[in-house]
Amino acid sequence: NAGVTQTPKFRVLKTGQSMTLLCAQDMNHEYMYWYRQDPGMGLRLIHYSVGEGTTAKGEVPDGYNVSRLKKQNFLLGLESAAPSQTSVYFCASSYSGLSYEQYFGPGTRLTVT
Amino acid sequence: AQSVTQLGSHVSVSEGALVLLRCNYSSSVPPYLFWYVQYPNQGLQLLLKYTSAATLVKGINGFEAEFKKSETSFHLTKPSAHMSDAAEYFCAVSDRSTGKLIFGQGTTLQVKP
Fold first, then answer.
1. Which residue, among B33, B29, B13, has the nearest Cα to B21 in the 3D structure?
2. What is the rounded distance in angstroms from the CA atom of residue A106 to the CA atom of residue B90?
3. CA nearest A106 in B: which residue?
4. How far is B35 from B75, CA to CA, in rounded Å?
5. What would you measure as the largest C-alpha separation in chain A, in angstroms?
6. Burial of A43 (0-12, 13-18, 19+ CB in 10 A)
7. pLDDT tens per residue across span B57-110
8. Residue B1 has pLDDT above 80, yes or no
9. pLDDT value at position A99?
10. Is A22 exposed, middle or buried (0-12, 13-18, 19+ CB in 10 A)?
11. Closest-CA residue in chain A for B108?
């Protein structure tokens, strides 16, 4: 069981470039989440999905898009990267919402110059 | 709206001393509460969770937390700190209508020899 994996681990982008972060889970979880972590701000939810083919906005969705074409994968896209998107991005998954534990990936460190 | 406040962004204790990390929540309904730990350059992992069963919850690595409704608190404690406990700790509340986690700002625990 690999759990939750994220690709890539590190990335440096120039302003205006685009990229896609890939999250994969092998636990057959319905729910998947994308967070960003910035110093002193905890984790903030970007987008989430409650099942294959569904997505919803979180707390800070602007500048990001997501897709959940397969149950095990959740993609996060940046169409035109900005320095404000420099952050550490975490993907998580859970069996359901509410009281169920979220399992986190190792993170992707993104720098936008 | 639900929210979480962690008192103290940095806590420093000596090895063998009591660890107390404070968390207060705001919720109009009985919450589900979580403590996660993040070791350097890693994702988050669950320490413990409260889901309206016993008010004293025991977690991994000797940590426990007590849910106090009258104080809207869910403080994390460990009787004797170990060097390996040095990490960042996050308190979170689950939004009952969506299952989304709302995180506090995090507390960095330093353990001095």
1. B13
2. 16
3. B43
4. 9
5. 40
6. buried
7. 999 999 999 999 899 999 999 999 999 999 999 999 987 666 788 899 999 999
8. no
9. 64
10. middle
11. A40
| Total CB pairs under 8 A between chain A and B | 57
Among positive and negative, which fits the CA dihedral A26, A27, A32, A33?
Answer: negative
Residues of B with CB under 8 A from a CB of A: 9, 32, 34, 36, 41-46, 49, 51, 90, 94, 96, 98-101, 103-106
What pLDDT is recorded for position B99? 72
Q: Over chain A, what is the mean pLDDT?
A: 93
Q: Residues A10-25: pLDDT tens digits?
A: 999 999 999 999 999 9
* Residue B27 neighbours by CB distance under 10 Å: 18
CB atoms closer than 10 angstroms to residue A1: 5
Q: Rounded to an integer, what distance in angstroms lies between the CA atom of residue B13 and that of residue A112?
A: 36
Question: pLDDT tens digits for B11-55?
Answer: 999 999 999 999 999 877 778 899 999 998 889 999 999 987 788
CA distance A108 to B43: 10
A57, pLDDT greater than 80: yes
Which of these, A31, A78, A71, A81, lies nearest to B94 by C-alpha position? A31
